[in-house]
Design goal:
Helices cover about 80% and strands about 0% of the residues. The protein contains 15 helices and 2 strands. Strands 1-2 form a two-stranded antiparallel ribbon. The longest helix is centred in the middle third of the chain and has 31 residues. It is globular, with a radius of gyration of 20 Å. Its main location: membrane. GO terms for molecular function: sodium:proton antiporter activity; xenobiotic transmembrane transporter activity.
Length: about 400
């Protein structure tokens, strides 16, 4: 693969991966305006975010088998079409219940892009490059929290929140010719059954692999910190600290630098350390920093600047852990990479959905709920990693080699 083709391939896969984050981040600054427009509350509007996460989690399990059975592109085209139709529906939504339902449908369509891009990394690149490519995808992915909320804030202020969904629909339209350009490296598996029993057995075969479940679950629990931040940040910054929609967009953009920067520093660290070493260290730091954040929040120590600093550290840890945990969880699989990728995504998004509902449940005028969930999820992630490693007899490293158990 030439450098130009390599760059374009990673860019397109990154844009596919970023579709759902853009769908999440761009409308966050518009929460107060959406609530006012639809005669509801900000907490009710937040349920449209929860429904989106639920749709993403369920869609992951749907597209995995379809990608393995029919190839990568046909299910992706269908998903993008559903996403575009749902975006039009969100634009026309006249009440909050309709918006919540359509956001679910939009997520089911849009998650095809994320699952397909993750699977294509395993198809298009050697296994020893997977961690590096995942980190590059995060670089493109990281542009969404820098650009999306800022654009969303200005669009909402200058026009209205409805226009945000027009922009999202156009993004999906532009992705279609890019997908057509991508090479086909995976032949559809006509022997792959779409009957419930074989599909369940396929998922179970992936889930019971010690290396997969250890790194996928640890990575998903770590990733919960990001979901908690995304769902809780509108209330924390705009209602508790009283910043405006535009200012919130810039804070969100600035904090994303931690997530992006850490993922790129990860590429440098991979030259000297293994993915497993980096993930374990990053998780340890995440536990320490999130625990400090929780204690400080409980005693009212952190103001706006302190909260931003602690969230920044947490995002750095997640940005370092995620590409390594993803690469290690998918490393043992080749023929059923689509199933493994979808199950990985379902774990991440399922736990993420749960965390967003927890934030809504603990509707508190403090940062204690957000910091507490961040700390609890980080601690569980580290425990899963340390315990799970003991059950991995022959670990397939992200470099493609096999080493003995721990």
């Amino acid at each position: 693969m030439t450098k130009k083709k390599y760059f374009l391939t990673v860019l397109i896969l990154g844009c596919l991966t970023a579709l759902s984050p853009f769908s999440i981040d761009m409308y966050l600054p518009g929460f107060p305006d959406i609530a006012k427009s639809l005669n509801t509350t900000t907490a009710q509007v937040a349920l449209s975010l929860s429904s989106y996460f639920i749709g993403l989690a369920g869609g992951q399990l749907l597209y995995g088998p379809l990608l393995d059975r029919f190839g990568r592109k046909p299910p992706l085209y269908i998903g993008l079409a559903v996403y575009i139709a749902a975006s039009i529906g969100c634009f026309m939504a006249a009440d909050i219940n309709t918006l919540i339902i359509l956001r679910f449908v939009q997520a089911v369509g849009g998650c095809a892009a994320g699952v397909a891009s993750m699977t294509m990394v395993r198809d298009l690149f050697p296994v020893e490059e997977n961690a590096k490519v995942f980190a590059l995808l995060i670089l493109v992915l990281g542009a969404s929290p820098m650009v999306a909320p800022t654009v969303g804030g200005y669009v909402t202020a200058a026009f209205n929140w409805h226009l945000i969904f027009v922009i999202l629909g156009l993004m999906a339209v532009l992705l279609i010719p890019a997908v057509i350009w991508l090479p086909d490296t995976y032949q559809p598996n006509v022997n792959y059954s779409l009957k419930p029993s074989p599909i369940i057995n396929s998922f179970w075969g992936v889930a019971k692999t010690p290396q997969f479940i250890t790194y996928a679950l640890a990575g998903a629990l770590s990733f919960m910190g990001l979901f908690v931040y995304v769902s809780g940040s509108p209330m924390v910054f705009m209602e508790i600290f009283k910043v405006g929609a535009k200012t919130y967009g810039w804070i969100f953009a600035g904090l994303s630098i931690g997530f992006i920067g850490a993922s790129q520093v990860n590429n440098i660290l991979l030259k000297k350390f293994t993915s497993e070493q980096i993930a374990r260290t990053a998780l340890t730091v995440q536990v320490i920093s999130s625990t400090v954040f929780f204690i400080g929040s409980y005693y009212g120590i952190f103001g706006l600047a302190g909260t931003i600093a602690m969230v920044f550290i947490m995002l750095c840890c997640v940005g370092t852990t995620n590409p390594n945990a993803s690469a290690l969880s998918l490393a043992p699989f080749a023929t059923n990479a689509g199933t493994a990728s979808s199950l990985l995504g379902a774990l991440q998004l399922g736990l993420g959905s749960f965390s967003t509902m927890l934030i809504s449940y603990f509707n508190s005028p403090t940062t204690v709920p957000m910091s507490g969930i961040m700390a609890a999820s980080a601690i569980m992630a580290l425990v899963v990693l340390l315990v799970g490693r003991r059950f991995i007899k022959h670990q397939v490293k992200a470099t493609g080699t096999v080493v003995g158990g721990h």
